[in-house]
Amino acid sequence: MTRKDSNVIGRREELSLLRELIAPPHKESHVLLLLGDPGLGKTVLLAEAAREARAAGMRVLATTGRESEQDLAFAGLHQLLRPVLDRVARLPTRQAEALRGAFGLSDDPAPPDALLTGIAVLTLLSELSDERPLLVTADDTQWLDRASLDSLAFAARRLESEQLVLLAGARGNVPPAGFERDLPQLLLRPLTRPDAGLLLDAQPRPPHGRLREQVLTQAVGNPLALIELARVIAADPDAGRRWTAEPLPLTGQLTALMAAQYVTLPPAARSALLLAAAADSPDLTMAIPGLSADALASAEAAGLIRLDTPGPRFAHPLTRSAVYHAAPFAERAAARRQVADALRDQPDRHAWHLAAAALEPDEHLAALLEDSAAQAQRRGGAAAAARALERAAELSPGEPDKARRLLAAAELALPAGQADWVRELAGKVLTLTSDPDLRIAARLDIGWSLLWSNRNADAFDTLLSVAAEASPRLPAIAWQATWMAATVAHQTGLPEVCARARAALDLLDSRDGPPPSAEDWPAGRADEYRIWIRACTDPFGERADIVPRLRRTAGGSLSDPGTFGAAAWVLNETELAVRVLREALSRLRAPGVRGASGGVLSALAWACVDSGRWDDALAAAREAGDIAAAYKMETVAGSADLTTAIVAAGEHDQVAPLLARVRAAVDTSEYGGFAARIWQTAGLAALAQGTYVTAYAQLRRLFAADGTPLHHHFSYLAVADLASAAVRAERHLEARTLLERALARVDPAPGPRLAQLTARARGLLAEPDSAEADFAAPLADPTGDTWPFERAQLQLDYGEWLRRQRRINDAKPILVTALETFRRLGAAPWTRRAESEQRACGVTVQAPQGAPGALDGLTAQQREIVVLAGHGLTNGEIADRLFLSPRTVASHLYRSYPKLGIAGRRQLRDIIDQQITPGAGR
In the chain, pLDDT over 90 holds for what percent of residues? Predict the structure, then answer.
């Protein structure tokens, strides 16, 4: 984009930045959001970037958001990819099916799957960029349909080494949905006074003197305003006085000017221009009678529209809006009906144009929109389907149909991630109908929406109210509401909330009402939910009753293995949890149900951390992060980041940004569980760094002075770390008192995991001559090996105590066992400490057998890719499995070979066979 070639005035810095992004060599991907008020030049800059890219031999794909298509699922994405749709067939089968289903190009579409659709877009763009560098532009993204935005945002966040630049423009100062965090932004500012003058001078009839000053003052540096005001004042010099007498906001002023130009056109031109505004698509306009070049000639001469291939284009989106709203409603409705008539072969657009022309209720139109919603839902456009149902409800003549459609819209808005909209829709149901079943269902949706909005207290009260009202007649809804309320209780960790959720369970158990019907309530689900509710509300109590019940239930057929596996994890039945959660995932990875796997993956990731399967934990966390991005699950994303952070606790540079991201995404005042995990992870990282006072200060926040836990479950999992920090920070007495106060609040038989953690904590804080009983007792119970990292920490502390007691021979085997565990896990700070203790015992520390550190030098994702490649999978197959682009897989492999000391892929199998054996690994 050379300076002499560009006709853009006043955007030197912006053009320079775009040049840098587009100029070769293209060694990595770039994403940039262009933001700013209407008329500041976002579209012009995107067009300049596209022009330069084409001149440099890049492929360019472009899409523009259209106000009339923002409720049509995947309309924007289809516009972007239409030139390369023939390439979809080359994608992996499930990705191709997902993308064809999203575009309605399949006679037998696969169930909608936002994750697969997103990875299909990423793979397609990545493969296109392999052929030659690729520029993707998306203009007016504030009007792109939500499904398209989500797919583009998903791909944008996973671009790494592709020869690809993605530029997105949006009106205003706020990024479009999905692009809010972590992506570079360029906020366009008004032109400086000198540049504004240069732009005025470049106009066909530039104003002078007083008129020039009036234009500069009114335009306040907005390029579009400068151009339009100069045009108007050249034709009507008195216009400046009217601007002063009738001040309007700049956007309103521009719209008024354009509307004034429209009404002065000949009638035929006005009719044609209104048809173009109603159609809102160059691709559609030529199929509509009355939209000829002759009819639009005077509109083009007035600068309102440009006639080119494939059809007429408005000079600016504000122009279309001005034209459309300058016409009376009767004329707009007639234009909409004419457009709809030309689109009978496109049922979605046909229905929406007819709906835009309707003022009165019309059941036929409502039914058309309901059909459109069903089609959008089948293609994965939940938000578009909900919008169609909402409009169908507005057009419904009868209140029962209106309420039914609003409720259906609310239930679709939930997976679209729009909690405020859910509450609005469900609230309308409550005002419309007295039907008790519809009202209870609407209130359940409101409870869900409050939960999604991080308003746990309000969600909890709503859900308990629903459970109490539903239990006599609708037990399935009552159980579902109580299950959700228990989930809230576990997230908050507040004792009073847990007690109320448990009371709701007791109420359900005391009811003699009819059992739920078999259609919506599989056999055994009540027992599974009962276990979940009890686990959430009192994870350390009543183990003598609840754990045997858990194990008995696990022997049968589970109706909801995800919930049951999560209950096993909460109850520290860790191996059972891993097995059941993996079984649940095998069901939930099918297209159409993948969105339900987010919570299951979160629980599995933590269960894998607990059981020493750290690479599996990182893989589950990465997949959970992908699910969270595709389905807008902030708490799932936060849990994934926390899991990654606690595994990386020895690497402070990695931990701090992960914890910052969790704090930004989750309200820790509402989520006590997240707050406790954050403090535990931060404390563990500080311990690893040797900053013991900091570690104690962070871990100390897990309990109040009287021993009340910040979280009734997670706080207790950090008691041994708290004691370790206290000893090294010389806060023994304070910590000992706090610990005993805290432990007095839990069951005296809390289970082997907490028993082992408590014993380590007491041993650390005990007087030296009395610590052995605490250290030794849990080591006699083999159950403690279920949690290898915690077991190894206990062994390390015990071994250190034995060495200081000069019992070197007793210390050596215990320290050897601890060191083996830390090495297997890759827990570097604890490995170094165990090695140091062995040297203090006079033992020469041997390097681990095999190729030392080969895989340990890789990141978790690189290890995962290397292992799959070593087992013979192609880059495309690995990318499809891990939801990455093939280019990203190739880049990770390329960076891994030097770390592994090999030349290429053929040597991977030997490395994998040496380092990974059944049952081993991190």
Answer: 57
